[in-house]
Write a structure and sequence with these properties.
The protein is of the alpha/beta class. The protein contains eleven helices and seven strands. A five-stranded parallel sheet has the order 2-1-5-6-7, sandwiched between helices. It has a two-stranded antiparallel ribbon with strand order 3-4. Helix 3 runs antiparallel to helix 11 and helix 5 runs parallel beside helix 9. The longest helix is centred in the N-terminal third of the chain and has 16 residues. The model has no long low-confidence stretch (mean pLDDT 96). It binds ligand PTJ. The site of ligand PTJ has 25 residues, from helix 2 and helix 4.
């Protein structure tokens, strides 16, 4: 697809850049999404572009929460739509979670393009015609689907701004956040913060879901009760401050 040799040491990183370039050209990704990605790349570099134990712990707790939740929604934005549609669809199919588009730089045209992008991969998504509102949130991210995020008790967000995470938590929902920056407001406010690249985190949640799905409710509840998000954030910051690169 892209002319990058598979043995190139930065193969995955270059593929991700090209996907975003295509997403920008097709109108799915917003121009500022490129800046957000660049910031993420810098943190990923310091993390050695690998999944750490603090991410695995958070993915395990996330899987347990999904199994305990009544309705989980995976939120899609213009970056994740092009970076990892297959990974989001795979997790939704494995776990029964719903997919919903939710954009900061919102437009009907972008929502529809993202809907088509998922439709072409055999998945239907909510949020194309938002008809409900998250209270106390002034950005476009307040516009949600009454059958999706509005009604969910658990929402998985990635590459987010902190405002919506705060508003979702205030409205009584649990939030799982995937973000490479442990100092960002989103992981600081979320219930479960996965400090990892969304491309690695989604398959890891799916792997943990597979391991946890035979557990009974008491065991799942114990996993979530023992999970400590503050320790995850502290461990992630320590790893970034002492990079092994
Ligand atoms: O498509 P839209 O209109 O909804 O807009 C999406 C963006 C990403 C532009 C919007 O949500 C935004 O401006 O995000 P921020 O506030 O820049 O936050 C993005 C966060 O995601 C930062 O903390 C980055 O470090 C982090 N990040 C970037 N790339 C990745 C990432 N985290 C995980 N995996 C990545 N690949």
């Amino acid at each position: 697809m892209f002319n990058i040799p598979k043995d190139h040491p930065r193969y995955h990183s270059l593929i991700a850049r090209h996907k975003l370039e295509e997403g920008l050209a097709s109108g799915i990704t917003t121009p500022t999404g490129m800046i957000a990605h660049g910031r993420g790349e810098a943190f990923d570099y310091l993390l050695g572009e690998q999944t750490h134990d603090f991410s695995v712990r958070a993915c395990r707790a996330a899987a347990a929460e999904i199994l305990l939740a009544k309705k989980t929604v995976i939120s899609i934005n213009g970056n994740t739509a092009v970076l990892c549609p297959e990974e989001m669809i795979a997790l939704a199919n494995a776990s029964g979670a719903l997919l919903e588009v939710n954009l900061f730089h919102d437009s009907k045209a972008r929502r529809e393009k993202i809907g088509e992008h998922f439709h072409a991969r055999g998945a239907s998504i909510l949020g194309i015609h938002p008809n409900a509102c998250i209270e106390g949130l002034t950005s476009n991210r307040a516009n949600v689907d009454s059958k999706g995020i509005f009604d969910a008790d658990l929402v998985l967000v990635s590459l987010e701004d902190g405002d919506r995470t705060e508003a979702l938590v205030r409205s009584g929902k649990k939030v799982i956040a995937i973000d490479l920056n442990p100092l960002s407001r989103t992981p600081q406010r979320a219930d479960i913060s996965i400090i990892d690249n969304v491309l690695r985190a989604l398959p890891e949640i799916e792997r943990q879901f597979d391991l946890c799905k035979s557990h009974d409710i008491a065991c799942l509840a114990q996993i979530t009760a023992l999970f400590d998000n503050k320790t995850v954030l502290r461990d992630a910051e320590a790893a970034i401050r002492s990079p092994k690169v």
